Request: fold
Amino acid sequence: MVALRFLRALSLVRCSGPGARSPSYRARGIRRAAYACMAASAGPRRAWSRALLRKIRRRPGRGLRRPRAVIRRRRPVGGGDPLEVALRRLVPGGGCMEYCRLLEEAADYVKCLAMQVRLMQTIVDSASHVNSID
Amino acid sequence: MYSTQQSEGGVGTSASAGIVSDECLGNTWDSLSVVQSMNFTEANRITSHRDIRLPLDHQLSGLVAGTATLSPSDKGRSHEDMDSFPSSQRHRHNKRKIDSVQNQNVKVEEQHDVLLESVKDQSGKDEKKQNNEISNKNSKGPDASKDDYIHVRAKRGQATNSHSLAERVRREKISERMRLLQDLVPGCNKINGKAMMLDEIINYVQSLQCQVEFLSMKLAAVHPEMTFDLERIVPKDVLQPCYGGSAVLGFSPGMSSFPPHLYASAFQRITQPGTPCVAPTSRDLQQDSLLQVSHLDQHLSPWQNELHIMNPAPCEVATDHIGSFLMAQTP
Reply:
């Protein structure tokens, strides 16, 4: 499912004007596409996928935020362990979770990240292979 | 001196065994040993715990030694009993004594039984705890909806405070999650410490995120040269992964409407290189995705609409040529 979404997203990114944009802009777009596909395929059940999509959706020049009944920061964490704090920063949505939950979400996040990396690596390899053939 | 007098007095008055002990009761220290043996025989007759005779002996000797201090007063009392009370009362008195000693015997036996049971329980309690754990795990599924209490049994020799129990449960949960993470992160089998593990996990996540960035830059560089054409691919029945492989990917329910013959034809192609079905390669991922791309447009779920967020000006979906260069690659 990840591959499906990612390829569709790639095609969408490509459509937005190949000549006009700089590679860095495209790279950023591809990166966002990659994360969005990852989060979308993980499903809404995971806290990290929800947080990641929320982060992607929130564009910088958005204007006023809709007052939502979202309960953020259920429990302010007393970050004593620097390792725990670092992990919370890395995993999307890791600021409000308990330690147990954090480890669980981290495991799922690592799994999906690894899959995404493998997929992108394959695409790049095949693309470069095709180019080398031609 | 006493003994002779008592024996004279005792023999005449009674003929039961209890009375014989009565004679001995009122005598010197030497008689106590006789009392001991008498009581022991009495105990044997009445109670049937023969297998634990030995400790009883010791217990009895202790008891008798304990009661030895009382003997002078007993002696005096029994003296009086013998003199003043009728034989029946003497008998009763003796019986009372025997009963008391028997009670002590019974108590001793009970203590010993308790000891035995405790020894047995040590192994049983561990089993019980295991069973409880297993039953907890089994029953957690159906019961989790009813109530959220986690039933834990304290092991032998551990604190039974509610706080420590809850802490122990939490610690076990955390260690379980750490084990899961250990399996995911490569090269973490040898590391045993929690801090080192966390360090490795953090490094791995950071490296994965860096890889994603690097690969996206590479893709951006390669991307404009790629041309995709799906229409060519689909009727060709491009090498699709087997059904099991697609199931691994998290096949959406919409996919079940696919005609099976597509997969059958593709299956034959795939089996020749001998690719395992259960673990599809990433190439299979892409090929599967191609098919999905062509057929899944009507199955857009709201979650998939997120993809449209990414582009400021989304245009029509162009057909892709991924399949073309993939076909070129297959040996």
Q: What stands out?
A: Chain A touches chain B through 73 residues (CB under 8 Å). The radius of gyration of chain A is 18 Å. The mean pLDDT of chain A is 79. Residues 5 and 37 of chain A are 6 Å apart (CA to CA).
